[in-house]
Specification:
The chain contains 1 helix and 11 strands. The chain is mainly beta.
Amino acid sequence: LTKTISTISYDFKAFNSKLKMNAFWKYYNQKIEKVDPVVRTDANGNQYRDEMKEKSNFNTNGYGFASSYLIKDAIAVLLSAERAVRMPNDNEIFGNPGDNLTGSTSLKPEISDNLNLGLKLGPYKVNSHTFSASAAGFVRDTKDKLIRKPNDRVNDAVEVTPMVNLGKTQSIGY
């Protein structure tokens, strides 16, 4: 398993630093090569060791920005948007018996389009105390979400399960 993530970012300030912004781009690359030993039999009936190989390669781009605008002292509006990528990790791809997880080399990366909006009040100082308050909301549209495959058999003695790609999901919250 080889993962490479390359990033370029740009920071920007304007209006006497009331507006702050960061824009970024990421390049993701993941190469998987799995080798399993197998026993084969030749034409004469002799057994020999061979290798079964599985290979895959994935690459995509992620990008986004994060910004804040200071409306007046101690009141700021926050806005960010991102195309985020979560690549499967080695346990999800190759399995981990200690976590009851079987491997799956066919997993696709999880890709999520995210939007966040928030408001921050503070910090305010009262005597020797400092406090602030914030509120935020978000929307996440995710494709190929990585989850542990549900087991609907309640009395199943087999406790190992693979990771799977769920398809499309959406989360909205605050």
